[in-house]
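ingest -> validate -> predict -> emit
validate: passed (alphabet ok, no gaps, 271 aa)
predict: started
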Amino acid sequence: MLRSLRLSRLLVPHRWLAVLVSCCWLATACGGQDDDPDGASAGGASSGGTTSGGSSSGGAHSGGASTGGANSGGEAGGGAPLTGGSGGADNTGGGASFVLTSPALDNVVGCSLESPSLCDVFPDENVSYMDNANISPELGWTNAPAGTQSFALVLMDVTYGQAHWALWNIPVDVMKLDADVPQDTANPASPPGSRQSNANFATTSEEGYFGPHVPCNVFEFELYALSTSAFSPQEPESAVLVSIELQELGETVLGVARLTARSGDYGTVCP
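emit:
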C-alpha cells in the first residue's frame, strides 16, 4: 500500500509535464497553420501575380498602350510635336505614317533644335537671308489620316518659336505643292481655294512665303491634316497667330507631318 502511494506521487509530476508538452505542441501547430495563409499571400498572387507582375507593372501600363502606343509612334491628337525619320509625323492610328517630303530637303535623323549641325540645309533659292530668291520649295505628302478633309501648312522657325508662313484650306485631294507659290496675293490660284499669310516681320512680301532668314536656325514645315474642309482662323493676316490657332484645334487635327532642316551658316559656325 505504501509502495503504491509513493509510486503514484512520483507519476503525478510526469503527467503534468506531459500535459504541458502537449499544450506547447498544440500552440506551435496552431501558429504554423496561421502562418501558412500569410505565406501564400506574401509569395503568391499579391506579390508575384497580377498586382506586381501582371497588368499594372508589366502589362498595359508599362509595356502596353501608354509606353508603346500613341505617344511613341502614333498620334498626339492635337498636333503635339513628335519629329523623326524621313518626314517625321504625328499620326492617330496604325498603318503607314503621314509623311511630308521635298526634293529640295532631306529630313535627316537626329536633326533637331539641339543638333542643328546634323540638319540638311535649305537651298539658297528657298532662303530670304541676304536677298536670296525666297522661293517656296516643292512639297509632297502621302498617307493622310482617315477622315482628313483639308490640309494646312506652316513654316516654323523652331529656334525662335515663330511661324514665317502659313497656307491653309488646301483641298484634301491635293497631295503636292508646286514650288514658288505666288507671293503677291492672299489667295493663290493653286492650291485652289487656299489662303496664305506670313509673319508681320516679313520683308519679302505682304502675304506670301517668307523663307529662313537667320544663319543656322532650325526651320520646320508642319503639315496639318484637318477633319474640317474649311479652317477659318480669327487672325488670318498673321502666320504666327494662324499657327497658334492650328495648335489649339485639338481633335480637329488628325495628324501632323513634319520636315525639318536649317538655314545655311553663311560664314558662321553652327553648333
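Helices lie at 2-43, 45-48, 50-53, 60-63, 65-68, 70-73, 239-247.
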